Every structure is written in structure tokens, then in C-alpha cells.
Amino acid sequence: MANIKITLHEEDVKKLNDVCNSFGNKPGEVINVLHAAQGIFGYLPAEVQEIIAANLHIPVAKVYGIVSFYSFFTMKPKGKHPISVCLGTACYVRGSEKILEELKKQLNIEVGGTTADGKFSLSCLRCVGACGLAPVMIIGDQTYGRVSPGMVKDILAKYQD
Amino acid sequence: MAKYKYNVLVCGGTGCQSSQSALILENLKKEVAACNLENDVQVILAGCFGFCEKGPIVKIMPDNTFYVGVKPEDAKELVAEHIIKGRKVQRLLYVDPETKKHIDDSKHMDFYKKQMRIALRNCGFLDPENIDETISRGGYEALGKVLTTMTPNECIEVIKKSGLRGRGGAGFPTGTKWEFASKSVNDQKYVVCNADEGDPGAFMDRSILEGDPHSIVEAMAICGYCIGANHGLVYIRAEYPLAIHRLQIAIKQAREYGLLGDDILGTGFNFDIELRYGAGAFVCGEETALIHSMEGNRGEPTFKPPFPAVSGYLQKPTNVNNVETFANIPIIITKGADWYSSIGTEKSKGTKVFALAGKINNVGLIEVPMGTTLREVVYEIGGGVKNGKQFKAVQTGGPSGGCLTEKDLDTPIDYESLAAAGSIMGSGGMIVMDEDDCMVNIAKFYMGFIVDESCGKCTPCRIGNKRMYEILDKITKGQGTMEDLENLKYLAEVIKDTALCGLGQTSPNPVLSTLTNFWDEYVEHVVDKKCRAGACKDLMSYHINPDKCKGCTSCARHCPVNAITGTVKQPHTINQSLCIKCGTCKSVCKFNAIEIK
């Protein structure tokens, strides 16, 4: 599942066990547990999935099957400033693919990747419901609307702290 | 709402929130407080007003003044002028594009004139986080009426007679669905609200949940009474934090008022609702997949029958309805089946909400009576195609729907007519495309979505769609053959006939409808190796027309790869071996000198 073994902080493990307990360690609650776990760790590395599987008395394969099925769950840590480009139809016809290309070029990463310094990560999403502002990209909590490829560089520069 | 002289409503829809409506709200509140007007003026964050194109929007009641494109720094002027001096701030009013006149009341705007708001009746008119405002607008009246004066069967009859059909896309009669669930005998049944809005480019369910969450709570309780369930679940996308937040508040308030929980309104009926979070899977909009996801499994669909009405969540009888379907229920109960069935066409009653977007002037959330034509929506409500470009197609139904063309524009919007024209009603995405959109590329876009979202359970969808995507990719790169087009059609038909679930069976629709309506364009890609829209990079190149180029150097300065050379005031040229076809030169040229060949 993962190439590099990571060590989880003891207090985080405790938090995770508490989450599992709060859902009664019921196998049917695995998706809710995963949502909460991603809230704690920011992502769902293999080690976290193993703990959840043990607590809920289900195979790790089942947990992994769920994590890999749903696009909301990620096994890779996100950057300090996660970037999402909307690829909903409205944004697509208004040129969001060009924004994505420009971001890939500027950051030198692919979709799903994180920059080497851990500052930015790049992902796509389908419709944020801000179609009036298409094309839309989101960095952290900030939404940028009516973006053109030429604006990308300046927008990224705001995060060069 | 009557106790205040003025109610200032700030749009809290996603589009407006992305344009700082929260800061506008904060500034308005500060201004009101600074002028000691808190007892006379209430400032609230309302649900989506619908006119997203002109956001952020601020509406002032009771005179129904509609301010558009408001900025946080406008708060001071709005309070000083409108509230204190009673003068409307002209520069923030909507300007009619035809007459160039300022319009202060939304009722007189073309965008709203043809609309009829039933499912969206409360969106933008009340504070969704305050149950009293909902009640003052007739909220929970229907629940009271059903529990105290009607039997479950009488209520189901009303819904059946109203002609309401499922708004999630397929259009199954809602009353009949309820009847099936009510006839299933079991000690435990469930009511499920499908709020896993997955169509990329549709946000109506989200807007209803954010703008009028109580209508969903009320409708689910009514459904529970009718089918004999006392447990409701809302399956909602985790990506909708505001909708989740407001629904949680609504459920809590309803419990406090005795409108949820045990012995509702003293009638002995028990009903409560809990939330389940989706995790981003389009297929979970399919009801069997949704149920498996709620049970904590991968959201893979299963074969029907057994229908959920017989064996659904935890193998118990379950009734699943979409958010918009539920939003129609309370008003059908209070106004009656005859009123509702008087709206719409013979087989499609009531209204439908659409998220109108793409290359259109008035992007927004609209609700129209069934039977309204696509032309009325695109040109009268939508204000026509953006930047005076040529209309090319309108896509309805998202990844399961099809692209309709000019010849279909007079099609009335109803389930049967849209299907006959080669598309579907779908959940309500409506995307307008213009001459710059390549239909082969659009088909590839939807197929890419389906390939990403296919759950992988059945072979036709998992492998067939992947092959279709590869063929489309080949065509857009200029490597397609006529045989590929035949294969595309053949694969599409096979997938349609053999896929397991509704998602798979409808997945080839974007390809089939574009093959039918835009055959010439496919052939051009294959035979002439040309993309007339200039969207397929491998089939186009940028050129500077020496007759139009003034030598202003703008393109050369903006070119990211320095592919443009030339001297000032002389026509420039593009070095094709360096050009990356980013289109920057075309967008910065003021003389339309950059041409696509």
C-alpha cells in the first residue's frame, strides 16, 4: 500500500482510537470513521487504515477498498496550500483545462502530486457550484473565479511566503 | 420577519460566497450597528437567489430592491443611502442589457420573468438558519395537515394525483414509489434523501439544502408517515460543508420544536433524521449504490429487483428520493394536487430547476414550468450566448445526457420530449456551448468523467467506456479512422444494452447524441484532420493575419515561450515549432489578427 513506513504520533493514534470508539467500532461506520480520520491526519496512510481495520474488526483490504473507491479520500498528504481546479462542465467549456495545464507547468507537478517543498498540491474536482464564476480554482479556502492562464502566476505568487 | 423595518438579505449561495458575500454580510452588520439601527434592520445570509452571473447579490425587503455585483466596501453606502435616506443606490442596480435602464425589482428582470419558483420558493427569502422564518412562510404546515387530518394512503393519493415525478433524473412517479414502500410489510423501514449531487455542473440540490433545509426535513417526515418509517437518512456529499451545516441546524431546531423526534405534534408519530456523508463517487447517485455506501461499503450498484422498496438499507424497505423531489412535497400538500397538476405538460407536471451555465450571459439557478422550451430558457432567461457568439449546442442531463442543437431548441422541457430528442431531463444541469466548443472534445470530456467514475463492477462500463475514451482521444489527435467511428457507435450500443446500472446504461449518451447531431464534425476530425472549433490542439495552429496585425507587440510580449517575433508597427509571425498553442496571443490581440487554422 505504501512504500515508506511512517510513524504516527502517539496522541494522534489515541485520537483515532477515540474516533473509532465514538462510532462504537461498528463495521458499518467505516466511512464516517475515515472522514474523521482524514480530518485528523489530512490524509489516510496505510498505517491509519491498519489501525481502523483492527478497531472495527474488518480486513485491512476492505478499508483500503473503500479508501481507493471514493475520490474524497486520499492516501497522499496534501500540500500546505492545496489547489483544486474545477473540471465541471461549465468550467471546462470556459477553459479550466488551460488553467490546469498552466498550473502543472508552473508547479512542475501532475494532478494528484505535491511540490517537493510541500507547499502546493494539485487536484481536480467536479463542480463547486460557482458556475457563474467559471473557470474556478480553489487554493485552501480561497476561491478564484474567472481565472485566465495568464493570471495563474500572479495568484501563485501570493503564496510565496 | 415583520418586526423589522428592513430586512437585508445577502446571498449565501456558493457562487456569491466565493465572491466575498460573507465579508459583505459582516460589513453590513457593522454599518447597521454603527448607525444604531439593530432594532430596525436585520441583516441575514439567505440562500441562493439564483442570478449567479451578477453576484454577489444583496436584496433589501420590503421594497424588494435587488442589488447586483456588490462589493464589501459598498456596505457603508447601502446603509447610508438606502436604509437611512431611502434612496436607492443606482450604480448597484441591475441594468437591462436591451433598454440600458436600471431595474430595481427582480420581478421585472428578464431572468426572473419566465420563472416559476416552487421548489425554490423559499430560497433567498428567509434566513435558513432560523426555523421561525420558515414557519412564518408556511413551513411545517403540510406536516401538521398530514399528521392530523390525513391517513397515509390519502396522502400518497395526493402525491400520485399531483403527477410529481422523480427529479433525480429518471422521472419515476413519486407517489407510486411511496405506495410500493408503504405496501412492503416490515417492522423497520427507511426514508432516504439522495443529496449526493454528482452531475458536474449542477448545483440545485445544494442550493435547496442551503437555502431552505426545513422543506427537506418536513418532506422526509411526511414521507415517513406515508410509508410507515420512523427513521430518515440524508446521504449528502462531504464536499458540501455549508449544506451539511444548515441541515444539521434545521434538524436540531425541528427537534426542539417537536417537529422531529417522538410524538410529533402530539400525534404519536415518531420520526428522526440522521446524516450520512458521501465521499465523492458519482455512481452513488444510483439508489442501490447509495444504499451500499450508507452501509459502509464501496458504492457499487446491485441488480434490481429487489427494489429498495422491498429490500434496501440494511435489507429493510427503503424509499429513496432526490432533494428537489422532496422540496416539492410540502407545497403539493398545502396547495393541493389539482393546483400542482395544472402546471406543466400532460405527462410532466410542475416545474424543474436547472443550473444554467456555460457560454451564456445569465448563468444561474432557474426554475421553469415543465413545457417551457429550450429556446425560452437559453434566450429569454439566459439572455443568449455570451460575447455574441454563435449558439452551438445545449447539454442537458450531465454525463448521462446528450447535446441538443439549434433544431431542437423548440423542444418543450419534459421527460418524454427531451428523451425523444436524444437527451434526458437528468438532475438539471444545462450547459450552453458556442462555436468555440468542439463536440468531439466535449464527448471525450464526458467519457473521461465516466471512466473516472465507473465503479468497475460490470465489464461493459469498466472496459467499454475506456475503449470509447481511447478512440475519442485518437480522433481528437487526428489519428482516427472511419472504422473508429463505426466502432464507437457499436460500443455505445452494446454498453447501453448490457451495463448493470443506470449510470452505465446512459454513459454512452453524450457520444451517441454528438455522433447523431455533429456527424460532420467527427468526419472532419477523421478525414480532413481539422477541428473547426479550434479546441483540439493537435489539429490546429495559430497564425497572424498580416493584414490585420498592427505590430503593437502585445502578443510577442505575452507569449510565454517567445514564439512570436517581429518589429514594432510591422506584422508579426509565429514560429510554429516553438508555439505551444496556449492561445494567449489570441486572447490579448486587440485587432483580431490571430487566426486559428
What would the keywords be for this entry?
heterodimer; A: 161 residues; alpha+beta; Glutaredoxin; 2 domains; four-stranded mixed β-sheet; 45% helix; B: 597 residues; alpha/beta; Rossmann fold; Ubiquitin-like (UB roll); 5 domains; five-stranded mixed β-sheet; 24 helices; 39% helix; globular
Task: Give a brief outline of the structure.
By secondary structure, chain A is α+β, with helices and mostly antiparallel strands. Chain A has helices at 10-22, 30-41, 46-56, 60-69, 89-93, 96-107, 149-157, and strands spanning 81-86, 120-125, 137-139, 142-144.
Set out the fold topology:
The complex is a heterodimer of chains A (161) and B (597).
Chain A: H1 10-22, H2 30-41, H3 46-56, H4 60-69, E1 81-86, H5 89-93, H6 96-107, E2 120-125, E3 137-139, E4 142-144, H7 149-157
Parallel strand pairs in A: 1-2
Antiparallel strand pairs in A: 1-3, 3-4
Chain B: E1 6-11, H1 14-18, H2 21-34, E2 41-46, E3 58-61, E4 65-67, H3 75-85, E5 94-95, E6 102-103, H4 110-113, H5 131-136, H6 141-149, H7 152-162, H8 174-183, E7 190-195, H9 204-211, H10 213-227, E8 231-237, H11 241-256, E9 261-264, E10 269-278, H12 287-294, E11 318-322, H13 323-335, H14 337-341, E12 351-358, E13 364-369, H15 374-381, E14 391-396, E15 402-404, H16 415-420, E16 429-434, H17 439-453, H18 459-476, H19 482-498, H20 502-506, H21 509-517, H22 519-528, E17 542-544, H23 554-558, E18 564-565, E19 573-574, H24 584-588, E20 594-596
Parallel strand pairs in B: 1-2, 7-8, 7-11, 8-10, 12-16
Antiparallel strand pairs in B: 1-3, 3-4, 5-6, 9-10, 12-13, 14-15, 14-16, 17-20, 18-19
Please give the alpha-carbon distance between the first and last residues of chain B.
60 Å
CATH class of the largest domain in chain B: Alpha Beta
| SSE arrangement of chain A, N to C | HHHHEHHEEEH
Q: Kindly, what is the distance between the CA atoms of the first and last residues of chain A, rounded to a whole number of angstroms?
A: 34 Å
Strand content of chain A: 5-15%
Order of strands across the widest beta sheet of chain A? 2-1-3-4
CATH fold category name of the largest domain in chain A? Glutaredoxin
